[in-house]
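User: Sequence recovery, please. Input:
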């Protein structure tokens, strides 16, 4: 079975029942958050789904906007230990619980969306992050090649990160994406390993 951040599972499938799939996942030790999405709205069905191991139970019909909000909420409630509370690269630190970013001890004035963008870049520090990935992971949107949404937010974030003692920078890989990387010789941690606490999951 592939690994996912979360799963939205319809209960009434053609050849199998969603309850059975969740039970098999839990029996196999899979802790991936599961949201059951179904037209079965009786109390017995809801109890059965949750007892099978589902984390959330949503009854149709529901708007796409609300469904996405419930998925985001589900991902924020991941099992303790799967989310590293702090991310740090040089003098840049992000508290993922308070949603507060600091650089050289000073709080950065970032919007909630800029925090989400920074968080994803820090989790993938040193790696190229594509525009398509950011549309999907940060904005919950399918990628539109004609949109400058990512570039506009990235430009504002880059400007806010450019403080006199900054030890990180956002580098554009033309035609590919962006990389958040440490700048050696500046900020806290100069002369040491530039990458501090990191997370295995976003």
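Assistant: Recovered sequence (202 residues):
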């Amino acid at each position: 079975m592939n690994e996912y951040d979360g799963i939205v599972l319809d209960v009434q499938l053609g050849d199998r029942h969603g309850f059975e799939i969740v039970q098999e996942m839990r029996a196999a030790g899979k802790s991936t958050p599961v949201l059951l999405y179904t037209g079965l709205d009786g109390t017995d069905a809801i109890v059965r789904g949750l007892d099978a191991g589902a984390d959330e139970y949503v009854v149709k019909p529901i708007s796409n906007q609300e469904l996405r909000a419930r998925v985001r909420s589900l991902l924020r409630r991941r099992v303790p230990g799967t989310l590293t509370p702090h991310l740090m690269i040089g003098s840049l630190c992000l508290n993922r619980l308070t949603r507060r970013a600091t650089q050289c001890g000073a709080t950065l004035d970032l919007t909630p969306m800029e925090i989400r963008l920074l968080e994803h870049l820090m989790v993938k520090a040193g790696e190229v992050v594509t525009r398509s990935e950011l549309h999907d992971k940060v904005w919950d949107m399918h990628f539109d090649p004609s949109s400058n949404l990512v570039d506009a937010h990235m430009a504002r974030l880059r400007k806010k990160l450019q403080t006199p003692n900054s030890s990180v920078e956002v580098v554009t890989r033309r035609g590919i994406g962006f990389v958040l990387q440490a700048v050696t010789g500046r900020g806290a941690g100069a002369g040491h390993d530039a990458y501090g606490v990191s997370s295995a999951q976003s």
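The mean pLDDT is 80.
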